[in-house]
């Protein structure tokens, strides 16, 4: 065998010799014994958590504080008619359970059945036609154009009669 082959074997033997032998852990054992004597013998229990009463947010159905307020002109206020009133026997449609302010027009589509408005709100995009109902005030869609949806709502006038209130949902650009 050549002496060059022995050099790596000698290096491995030196490394292995350093790993073995009698290692002195007396200082480590002394430190651990000192720590055991210093530590209290018991662990504190975890704190108990008090439960607090739950809070229910009850203003979800009110007008948004960020929408523009409507000024009421009592002198020019329209008076309702006894001929206009919501139909209590009509079956409510799904979108009548939501505020009309949350809907925005995102487009229109047309096919052989007619033209439809695409309104985003109530957790999705909905296809509506003229005559469909929308919003909590018996809002009925009366016209659909490429730029807006016209809705007529039936609202109380405050004096025991009902009033038709027109609303427009404009097309939201870049939606």
UniProtKB/TrEMBL annotation:
Pfam families referenced in this protein's UniProt entry, alphabetically: PilP
Per its UniProt record, what PROSITE patterns does this chain match?
A: PROKAR_LIPOPROTEIN
Q: What is this protein called?
A: Type IV pilus assembly protein PilP
Which organism is the protein's source? Pseudomonas migulae
Classification from the root reads: Bacteria, Pseudomonadati, Pseudomonadota, Gammaproteobacteria, Pseudomonadales
